[in-house]
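User: I'm putting together a teaching handout on how multi-component assemblies are represented. Below are the sequence lines for each component of a complex, exactly as they appear in our records. Could you produce the 3D structure of the whole assembly as structure tokens, so the students can see both representations side by side? Please keep the chain order the same as the input.
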Amino acid sequence: MSAADVISIYAIAAIWSMMVLNVILSIGGYIYIYRCNKTDGHIPMDPEAYPMVSILVPAHNEALVLERTVKALLNFDYPEDKYEVIIINDNSTDNTVEIMSQLASVYPSKKLICISTDNVVGGTGKSNALNIGFSVAKGSVIAIYDADNTPEKGALRLLVENLMADDKLGAVIGKFRTRNRNASILSRFVNIETLSHQCMNQAGRFFFFKLCTIPGTNYVIRRSIIEQVGGWDVKALSEDTEISFRIYRMGYYIKLLPQAVTWEQEPHLLPIWFRQRVRWAKGNVYVMIKNFKYTFDREAGPMRMDTVYYALIYSIMLTSLVASDIIFLGGMLGMIHVKLGGFSPALWGMAILVFVANVMLTLSLEKNEFNIESLGLVFLMLFTYAKLWVIVVVKAIWDSTMDAIFKREVKWDKTVRYVEEGDKK
Amino acid sequence: MKYKGRTIIYRLIAAIVLLASFFHALPAVTEAADKPAHILVVYPEEADHINGDDGPAALARVIVSLGYECDYLEAENAREHISEYEQVIWCATAESERLDPTMLNGYKGHLLVLGDAYGLENVGLYCPSTTRKSISGAASYSFYDDIVFSSSVPLLHPGLFEDADYTAGNLETANGPLPLVSARGDRRYIALCDYTSEFAKAVLMQEISSWLWPYDSKMHVYTEYIVLDEVYPYTDLDRLTEVVEYLTDNHISFVISVMPIYQNSDYPAMQRFCEILRFAQSSDGAVILHAPIVQNGLDAEQLAQQLTIGTMSYIDNGVYPLAIEIPSEWIFSKDITSLLGRYRTVFLADMDAFPNHPVDSYSCSDFLKLGSQRIQPALKLDDDGISHLGRCSTAVYLNMAELTDDELYSAINAAKNAPIPMQTLWTMDEVVYMNEDHYLNWNGSTLIVDGEQRFHTYTPSVPESETDHDYKRDSYYRIVANLSNQNHFLIGLSIVVLLTFLLLIRRSRKQMHDRFLHKKTNKEVKDV
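Assistant: Of course. Below is the structure of the complete assembly, with chains in the same order as your input.
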């Protein structure tokens, strides 16, 4: 048996295993979202019982998108005196301060706080900014929104009602959608990916294991938890994933509430998207390494599922895709000859169909997403966008390795924003 | 005493020298008598570009089959050289271009004229028709006994030797009947100008052999071999057993051309296959090795390695491949020629597989000079695909995978009843030299493999069962086996998943419809 055969067996086994796992998660996610769609998501509360909520919005040179975000936050249907909006103007060099001042004058009755930091205290990333914001927050519940978000009016109320209804919940996360999905073909791919591989996957994991990973925006978390864990990890590039694991270890669940929606601006250009995804992947690799030891700790509870899941994604999935791509390219160039028999081309065709049907299943639960155009995009992204994931992760692992070897400080690579067509008008 | 002793010694030396000179001279005499003809084929310039089945290339393949050395020259180039050859084939087959008959003025050697006879009065040919144009006619010819084969053939100004001392076959044309072949002395004429059909090839083969036969006696009749072709270890062994038993029961000599096996030659399936082969080679059968299937160009070194492994995998199981079967095209590969020289007998398959060689290359084949016994595919004169010519050793290839039982046994019986003798390879000396470590030598009575004597007698054995066999599969092999078995399962699973997804999609779309479209409709109704 040649090396190519051995690698092929590995790739086949790994890819099909991951596909089966994904199908199971999708079915679980489908059932969960289907049930959620039957209700409006609200859990009625005594108006007086609504807790004080501090909304933290880290912003580093986000003037282009911040005004829209803050307006949306100030328009929540949450009791006006029960929440405050804290903008952490994190060492910005743009006109964020002026925009905040103008908004404060427009909404004098709202609690809008803007904290500006310099390059000594701030400017080192989102975790640090959140910790600064948290230090002045008064709420017993903390809500986090990214500066490019436009949450729907009822999002905060839904999140808080669900959090307060169950003491075992450490955090409740909402769904985020792509505001600028028609900006480019890349943003269309991101929109589909967001719905299928992030929302549906989260729903599946919550359905089966009561596990969700905090997505970084549009979520509420108990203040007591943040105090107990000592705030956000400033070394983590994906502080959301990192804190999720610490919440798991405390024995709390994290719930997905798909009715609580925020719309955010996603990268529409490949270089911006690539830098953002490399940062995410680096952050996830950091979290995986930090938490993998709990896989073998029985007391870690359901979080072990997530440590295994992340390990599968960043080791098995990655290597199997790299292997299959190398074999495919090598075969095309006549450099690699796989003699492995038994698997028919029909099987690979079925694998592609299962992938496409899986994504379309997710889109079928969304408004205005399930159509022929999306079907074509899914086929296209399988052979283009999905391949980029391998490059992203390889780059992230390479960077992480270099950072570790040369003891380089981890840098926060901010996602570049742009003015959308609607904002121009 | 000393004197007498010296005398005896001198006499002994003289006797040895005399004997040695006698034996040395003997091959020389034989060689002179058996010296193969060296033929000049003269063909029209236009035909040079054909190189196809109806041009000199087809004729060249016939000559190669007969083992004669040839030179091929276009008419203009041949003019100065004709007198240098003792045998000339005048290939006048192109309608648009005529060969200049004056080139043959004064030629004294053996001459064979093909096709156009017009204007060749200078060599004694006569043409009944005066118009030179292509026509067609019905040709008939008897190759053996009284059985006459007929075929419609294209003609180009056919003729005959008026005072012929030999004629063969008949030709019915619009101008009346003619002999298909006529000859006077060393000069012969064949009216055929297209050599595509099996009939034409057979006539040419028969007549060229006869034309060049140097003796007054009857021509030598070569043997014919029944070859069960391309037999794999995973073939239907019960069917193979039945065929082998039929052949041995009827004392029909045969050859089994087995495909090379490179690994796992100890598997029970291979053992059972070789059990049948051992039985076959102990009686009237012999085994030869079919050449590997080459897909990415010939590589002599790799091929040699494959042949060694392939042969040894059978020898290790008591089966002794005595010869090799190759695609005919290989004899024109200079790289492969030396490799083929390692075999005393070479079976050639598919003689029509090399139509695109320049006609000159047919004379360049070093393979012809190796002296190996070549066995050509039999021409397919009748429905059973058997020619029964006997002009050269031929093989009737029967592919069991392609033939029904009726077709197979019909062909075997036709070969059995034909007047051409069948012979087993075990009656001949055979050599298979693989490399310096591995060789096989059969001298007609003793079989030597790698320096040790072996026997091709058959002793029944009980092949190991598949369940008892230790396949020595490591974990990877087990995974492969499992994965192979999972192919259908995974396809089935995928179909189930797809159907499930489709049902779920239908359900969710209904939910979305109820949530949004239905609400909208109610609102619209209310507005109205």
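A couple of points students might notice: The radius of gyration of chain B is 32 Å. Chain B touches chain A at residues 476-477, 479-480, 483-487, 490-491, 494-495, 497-498, 500-502, 504-505, 507-509, 511-512, 515-516 (CB under 8 Å).
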